[in-house]
Design goal:
Elements: E1 10-14, H1 18-30, E2 34-38, H2 41-50, E3 55-59, H3 68-77, E4 85-90, H4 96-104, E5 109-112, H5 118-130
Helix pairs in contact: 2-3
Length: 132
């Protein structure tokens, strides 16, 4: 892993499980990214009012106040964030209507947390932020 591959990049990680958010945060920070974490959808939307990001990692199943797809709708409806790259991370397989939903909302990638190795996610994120 290159230590500065994401130098100068800002990521928002919207994840309600602290162990998972801590793992991803440490991983991407070691690669040079600045990472902010929001454990709930409403908190993520508040952060997005004051901060711009190169990439948003969004858990599909946030639990408490709103799910990841609801957060995604808000992101895409906001002029300031509508073109920000979004990667969905989940432990759930997608249904056909959910695939159509994420395609409609221009999601840069969908990854199953339990089955995607961090180095594979890093390669995908590298391509996403490089292309923006």
């Amino acid at each position: 892993m290159e230590t500065d591959i994401f130098s100068g990049k800002k990521f928002l990680l919207v994840e309600d499980q602290e162990s998972i958010s801590s793992m991803y945060k440490k991983f991407f920070e070691r690669s040079g990214a600045e990472v902010m974490v929001a454990p709930r959808g409403t908190e993520a939307l508040e952060i997005l009012k004051d901060h711009a990001f190169d990439l948003i990692f969004l858990d599909r199943n946030l639990g408490a106040d709103m799910d990841g797809f609801q957060v995604l709708e808000h992101i895409r409806q906001n002029e300031k964030t509508k073109s920000t790259a979004v990667v969905i991370l989940s432990n759930l397989a997608l249904k056909d209507d959910e695939i159509a939903f994420i395609e409609k909302h221009n999601v840069a990638g969908y990854y199953t947390k339990a089955s995607v190795p961090l180095n594979v996610l890093e390669e995908a994120v590298t391509a996403i932020v490089r292309d923006r």
